[in-house]
Amino acid sequence: xxxxxxxxxxxALDGYKIWIKFSDGNEGEIDLTRFAGDGVFKDWxxxxxxxxxxxxxxxxxxxxxEIDLCPESLYSELTGKTWHQLVESVEVVPTRA
Length: 97
What we know:
With about 100 residues, this protein is an alpha+beta fold. The protein is built from 3 helices and 6 strands, in the order E-E-E-H-E-E-E-H-H.
């Protein structure tokens, strides 16, 4: 089951924060400082690379070929809703046979 909530806009803010907006209208800041400087996230030490955030064709929050963040996790962090709560809120529509 796929949750029909997609990121529609994202931009870098000061520090290691991003602003993100989702297709259901939820939007806000998410602090990604906890990742900065660790493993592939060392790439963000070059500020221009952190500012190069975008939405990939597959819907991930992306910084090129090396770093992708799951939009469902970011949505959960932004709204405070757990994955279970998100799944429960989705209306399942039967397909025709």
